[in-house]
Structures are given as C-alpha cells and as structure tokens.
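Reminder: ligand-aware prediction takes two inputs, not one.
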Amino acid sequence: MTLAEFQQLIRDRYYATDSARGAPATFLWFSEEVGELAEALGHLHRGDGSEDDLAAEFADVLAWLATLANITGVDLTEAVRRKYLDDGGPKGTK
Ligand SMILES: [Mg+2]
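Here is what comes back for the chain with magnesium ion:
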C-alpha cells in the first residue's frame, strides 16, 4: 500500500465525520495518539512493552496524520515529495 492509497482509505472511511469535527478538535485526537505512541515506546524501553502494541500506535498516529491532511487539503505524498525528494531534500535536520 502506498502513502496515497492509505490517505485515500482514511478519507473514504472517515472524511465526513472528520471534516465535521474540524482541524482543531482533530488535532487533539492526533495528539492523544502521539501520547499513546510515547507510552508504547516507554513500555518497550522499560522492557514491559509489546512490539505489536508499538506498531499499532504508529499506525494510529499515521491514520490521524492522514486525517488532518485530508481535512486541510494536503496531499501527503506530494508534500513529502516536495520536501524530502525535490532538490535532494532538506539540508541538515528535518
Ligand atoms: Mg492508539
């Protein structure tokens, strides 16, 4: 599955609900998922985590990022191409 296909899947499944909620409230959901990813990383670091749980939290964060892109009109594939591929990508840090 490509990034574009994933973004479209999230759009097909959730766009109506996501767009009605709006970007500010959706960003709160995204932030909550980032917190869950942090928690999964912490558990793994302390030795009481699960790689399956970690992978699931990465998936959640990507899904909510795709949601934010969908409701703000950003094509993630194009954004990544422009920032990270064109002209050799960013110089130095991200
Ligand atoms: Mg989660």
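The helical segments are 3-21, 23-46, 51-72, 76-85. The pocket of magnesium ion is lined by residues 33, 36, 57, 60 (CB under 6 Å). We will return to this case in the review session.
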